Amino acid sequence: YGDPVGIIVADREKTANKAAKLVKIKYKSVSKSKPLIKIDDVLKSPEKDKRVTNNRTVEPEEVGKDVKYVISGEYKVESQYHYYMEPQTCVVRHTEDGLEVTSSTQWLDLANVAISQCLNIPANSIQVVVRRVGGGYGGKITRSCQVACAAALVAHLQGKSCRFILPLETSMSVIGKRLPTNSNFEVGVDQNGVIQYLKNVFYQDNGCSANETISPITVTHFFNCYDHRRWYVEGNSVATDTPSNTWCRAPSSTEGLAMIEYIMEYIAHKTGKDALEVKLANMVKEDNPIPDLLDHLKKDSNYNERIDEVKQFNMNNRWRKRALKIMPMTYDLFYIGPYNSLVSVYHADGSVVITHGGVEMGQGMNTKVVQVCAYTLGIPIEKISIKPTSSFTSPNAMATGASVGSECVSFATMKACEQLLDRLAPIKEKMDKPTWEELIQEAYAKGIDLQASYMYSSNDNLKPYDIYGVCALEVEVDILTGNHDVRRVDLLEDTGRSLNPTIDVAQIEGAFVMGLGYWTSEKLVYDAESGKLLTDRTWTYKPPGIKDIPADFRVYFRRNSRNPYGVLQSKATGEPAFCLASVLTHALREAVRAARLEVGHDDEWFDIPNPCTVENIFMTVGHKIDHFILK
Q1: How many whole angstroms separate alpha carbon 625 and alpha carbon 620?
Q2: Is the distance from CB of 428 to CB of 422 less than 8 angstroms?
Q3: Edge-to-edge strand order for the sheet containing 484-493?
Q4: Which residue ranges does the record assign to the Aldehyde oxidase/xanthine dehydrogenase first molybdopterin binding domain (predicted)?
């Protein structure tokens, strides 16, 4: 269910959308078997062997023998829709030499290739242009091509310009989402919670195709900051009868870190140890700054004092409970490419214009590119402007995503500026402290090329690096209703030498709040008989709102941090903080646990099903009639 079957063309958007709803489809033969919507459906079906693919397996290097406790269980991470403000949209118009495509896409090159193959026309007759995108989160990397190809097909056949805007309900039904993940694990630990062996077999739901399998990378992120020499990890992908899923902000890292942090919390409960002690006991010992970051965060957030305050609050309040949890993160970042940058200087006034291969979608890429250019050339930022991204000036450019777009484009811009400086150096040596404008005019008179381009690729010396972060979150839960309030968040992230602290703080805050929505309110519901998505609008699908933002939100940068592998010693900030948002699930469980213990429930491990909605929290409390009798 949810597979596009046709395009309605009309002179007005309203007419097209109304006509699309009137279309009735009749099938000659329909399978009588129920669709396989969930991973569990596939694992229990006779088609399991056909639909499950092993993508990566990591064997343990050693196995410990001091096994005091054995823990096993299942953990599920659900899906998420990319809730961008601008819908999937595209405008295609005819030009003298082909088609001009203005697409809301994160990947111009793929749109160019897809349209070329769809219409069977040369790629050089298609120019894809993007000024900016109103939010992407990975949902406009490949899926924007569906809309772009549809609009291009209409324009090609009709000989007219075409605008295609995908309605929200249609977008939620047909565009893929975050890959759901199921984990089955068993772990043996000693009396201090140190892992002696661990086996984790997880499955990720690709939907109906395996175009964007992420399981191999999820395995890497599962290791987090821990010593994994004794771990067996198996990553599998599963084909279900749902629209093909795709990358969503912090793909694979979100699921990987969530799985191992859940296991660590489970170990702490089983052994009776503090969760932070268990995590520290299992961490990598060498070249690991996480313990130091934890010390700084605990001090800055008054962690120890607030733990005592939480305990006192819970003793004095029956129907409201608080919890304070802390979570570490090591985010493994790798570069992708290529990315182009073209820098031109005008001789008339020395002003500079840049067009690059990245896509500005709210992450502040253009601002950072302008800053890098101004810093390298030594000119005011007021002299620099950014032109739209184009497949003509940036052919073959990679998708903007994985948090590295700003870095790679800034690197390419820096290299292009260095080329210009090399050309200007001989001219400048012969002049007496010229202004930038004087230098440019003289270079122009001497016939110097005032345009330079550079393409970042894997051949450049930008090496993968780790991004470190720790987060402390305090939550208060209304035990009577299941509502919760995130009272305070302290988040410390290693940003290297930040190119723009304001942008980086905003990226960290935005990613974290988007993660809070994912773990608490964004629930997708499908009809079990047909596979139809039932939560396809804001009335039924709830992204976080203004009241979901933590009342007290404090972001810290790692002190005196430098990244020798990054652009101007910086680090990426777009996605890592999203991974830290799963700390909320542990805090919610701890708060509910306090309520359960107060009324005499056994101190057994329990789960709040993801996402931790109001209903799921309420049902997990375990209320009984006699709990409401006044004493």
Answers
A1: 15
A2: no
A3: 320-333, 465-478, 484-493, 552-557
A4: 59-283
Does residue 2 register a pLDDT over 90?
A: no
Neighbours of 397 (CB within 10 A): 30
Q: How many Cβ atoms are within 10 Å of 624's Cβ, its own excluded?
A: 11
d(CA 332, CA 325): 23
Measured CA to CA, the distance from residue 81 to residue 379 in angstroms comes to: 42
DSSP annotation of 241 = S
- For residue 30, what pLDDT band results from cuts at 50, 70 and 90? confident
Residue 537: count of CB within 10 angstroms of its CB: 11
What lies within 8 Å, CB to CB, of 261 at 6+ separation is: 224, 327, 582, 583, 586
Q: Peptide bond before 380: cis, by omega within 30 degrees of 0?
A: no
pLDDT of 576 over the 90 cut: yes
Q: Is residue 184 part of a domain?
A: no
Clarify whether 575 is annotated catalytic: yes
State whether 53 and 119 are in the same domain. no
Nearest to 405 by CA among 362, 345, 373: 362
Query: Mean pLDDT, to the nearest integer, of 504-528?
Result: 97
Query: Would you say 344 and 352 are in contact if contact means Cβ atoms under 8 Å apart?
Result: yes
Task: With respect to residue 3, please indicate whether it lies within any of the assigned structural domains.
Answer: no
- Domain assignment present for 344: yes
Q: Is the pLDDT of residue 567 over 80?
A: yes
pLDDT of residue 154: 98
Q: What is the pTM of this model?
A: 0.96
Q: Determine the pLDDT at residue 209.
A: 95
Question: One-letter amino acid identity for 365?
Answer: M
345-380 burial, b for 16+ CB within 10 Å, e for fewer?
A: beeeebbbbbbbbbbbbbbbbbbbbbbbbbebbebe
Please write the tens of the pLDDT for every residue from 244-256: 999 999 999 999 9
Q: Are residues 147 and 160 in the same domain?
A: yes
Q: Which residues contact 272 (CB under 8 A, 6 or more apart)?
A: none
Is the pLDDT confidence value at 142 over 90? yes
Do residue 258 and residue 383 come from a single domain?
no
User: From the candidates 575, 590, 598, 604, which is the catalytic residue?
Assistant: 575
* The pLDDT of residue 554 is above 90: yes
Q: What is the domain range of residue 525? A: 289-334+464-626
